[in-house]
Write a structure and sequence with these properties.
Number of strands: 20
Strand content: 15-25%
Helix content: 25-40%
Number of helices: 12
Bound molecules: guanosine-5'-diphosphate, 6-O-phosphoryl inosine monophosphate, magnesium ion
Shape: globular
């Protein structure tokens, strides 16, 4: 069996958690391959909303293994909170979750370093979630990091203290004040729980499962435009959020990748700093934010909102080799008379249909095409056959422009508010 991948094509928060949960019954394994608790993946069913940060979004289903891959960075404090919340809802996390020995640990001092770095950047700050993601991946690539498997080694404490001392030196350089004592106690508690989980060689686990005919869905975090290589650098996260990240973050060979589900909102949002060509500062932007409840699932920050951006989506589809598109939050557009789609950018009079290299400093003016809105409540629909003609028009226009079929249209946050257009798995 091949591994299917589901990942975000915009700046994150496309609705990955919801769709992974919807697709989970078709799979034996759900695996996260990158990112960490900067992610906030929301699932809704039976009137209850759940937000997951580190734990894969298949956790609410029975008979599915949820793997936290080697490419993920884990904060034991946040993981403990997530697990406690799930256990309180009678979810048997211990039985259904497996953690890679090679996943790196987020230390309390990584979080402090994140805050110190953002403070030092002042107005130029990235708008990080301050979960310690950047500093942890820096230690990973700098070959100083600590991994889950190291927790079981006799020299762990010594290596931990050595790394913390190094971090303290950097914090001193930043003149950053902190109190480590309380953070340390929470970390120790989290580590205790983490050590009690099923810690595995996840690359072997996943490959053996595949060889035995089991199906795997890799769950991305963040979105393509936040990818450290292909996103709007430096306003990005510190991992490869793209399809290639599946290979390095779960130990899957490139020729084992099957379907690539690219997920996008029917409009666009971004949280944190950085370029956003179609961002709206008017009433329409406010409407998208209010109707779409656009507040960060991890930080609660308001998300910036704008119209859909085809040059950006085309780029994301190319980088990821997307085979199927999933369009989310169509219902948020219910009230609009017309819907705008950015087809090109105007850069100093030159009309282009790709993202320029220096998107951070270049003024990019979006060029829009207007499509007819449907002005109907989509949230109550239960079949794709019931959708208004104008929504079909919107979907078909996007398919034609993007040259990839849209197989799912989402019309509300609940599991049930999901309209299948074609058979999702070939
Ligand atoms: P993720 O990070 O990609 O998993 O997405 P988030 O959970 O951060 O953000 C998506 C938000 O949109 C969540 O609050 C979801 O409950 C909500 N959501 C998902 N799909 C839909 C949809 O089709 N319509 C509406 N109105 N909300 C949705
Ligand atoms: P999910 O998986 C949206 C953004 C932050 C910031 C930048 C860097 O829920 O889609 P970091 O904490 O990684 O140093 O932040 O990336 N960011 C996200 N935005 N959704 C996410 O995850 C994000 N994870 C990070 O807002 O701009
Ligand atoms: Mg999110």
């Amino acid at each position: 069996m091949k591994v299917d991948v589901l990942l975000g094509l915009q700046w994150g928060d496309e609705g990955k958690g919801k769709i992974v949960d919807v697709l989970t019954p078709k799979y034996d394994i759900i695996g996260r391959f990158q990112g960490g608790p900067n992610a906030g993946h929301t699932l809704e069913f039976d009137g209850i909303k759940h937000v997951l940060h580190t734990i894969p979004s298949g956790i609410f289903h029975d008979d599915v293994a949820n793997v936290v891959g080697n490419g993920v960075v884990i904060d034991p404090v946040i993981l403990k909170k997530e697990i406690d919340a799930l256990v309180a809802m009678n979810v048997d996390v211990n039985k259904k979750m497996f953690v890679s020995k090679k996943a790196h640990l987020i230390l309390p001092t990584h979080r402090l370093l994140d805050a110190a770095s953002e403070k030092a950047k002042g107005k130029e700050k990235i708008g990080s979630t301050l979960k310690g993601i950047g500093p942890t991946y820096m230690d990973k690539t700098g070959r100083n990091g600590l991994r889950v498997g190291d927790l079981f080694m006799s020299d762990f404490d010594a290596r931990y203290n050595q790394l913390v001392e190094k971090h303290k030196q950097i914090l001193k350089f930043h003149n950053y004040e902190y109190n480590l004592e309380e953070l340390q106690a929470d970390f120790d508690e989290g580590v205790k729980l983490l050590k009690s989980l099923t810690v595995i060689d996840s690359e072997h686990f996943v490959n053996e499962a595949m060889n035995n005919g089991q199906s795997v869905l890799a769950e991305g975090a963040q979105g393509t435009l936040l990818d450290v290589d292909f996103g709007s650098y430096p306003f990005v996260t510190s991992s490869n959020t793209t399809a290639a990240g599946t290979c390095t973050g779960l130990g899957i060979a490139p020729n084992k990748i099957g379907e690539v589900f690219g997920i996008f909102k029917a409009y666009c949002t971004r949280v944190g700093s950085g370029p956003f060509p179609t961002e709206l500062f008017d009433e329409d932007g406010e409407t998208l934010g209010t109707v779409g409840h656009e507040f960060g699932a991890t930080t609660g920050r308001p998300r910036r909102c704008g119209w859909i951006d085809l040059p950006a989506l085309k780029y994301a589809i190319m980088i990821n080799g997307v085979t199927q598109l999933i369009m989310m939050k169509a219902d948020v557009l219910d009230g609009f008379d017309t819907i705008k789609v950015c087809t090109h950018y105007d850069v100093d009079g030159e009309i282009i249909d790709y993202m320029p290299y220096d998107i951070v400093s270049t003024e990019v003016k979006p060029i829009y095409k207007e499509l007819q809105g449907w002005k109907k409540d989509l949230t109550q629909l239960s079949s794709i056959d019931e959708v208004p003609a104008e929504l079909n028009g919107y979907v078909e226009y996007l398919e034609q422009e993007l040259n990839v079929p849209i197989t799912i249209v989402s019309v509300g946050p609940d599991r049930k508010q999901t309209l299948m257009r074609e058979s999702v798995l070939v």
